[in-house]
Amino acid sequence: HKAKVEAMTLDLASLQSVQHFAEAFKSKNVPLHILICNAGVFGAPWSLTEDDLETTFQVNHLGHFYLVQLLEDVLRQSSPARVVILSSESHRFTEIKDSSGKLDFSLLSPSKKEYWAMLAYNRSKLCNILFSNELNRRLSPHGVTSNAVHPGNMIYSSIHRNWWVYTLLFTLARPFTKSM
Q: Would I find Oxidoreductase among this entry's keywords (predicted)?
């Protein structure tokens, strides 16, 4: 009953917006005990952000990554604190390494010719998992834990709205997944 809620603007498709958000949040001088990174796009047509990065990668992963980096000091000072990163089981269906086993950066922000929406989503979600694991390794000794979670299919969203095929697949799969 004493909670105070305040909305702040943040556009993960703009690293400048992420930076401005972090600065504005820090200026409030309030603790940050829980940071939930849950924004995302799925099945979006190929496009570049104002930062010249593929949109799915930037919105689903890089924007959150940058935000956490910018707020890391606030999280540490707010200890105990937690970062929750919403990922997806689809992270299991991709790879971000080349044939020699090294990270292939061209897979993360592919050209239009190399783009496939589902793979872009899967790769961004794999990056979420890897980031959360490393974040937890580095920050848990300082009282900040990080977890990556798959939200399941409990609440209907329109994340699949960009292409009718995805809408059909989500509709067909829904009876076979967990729900409320």
A: yes
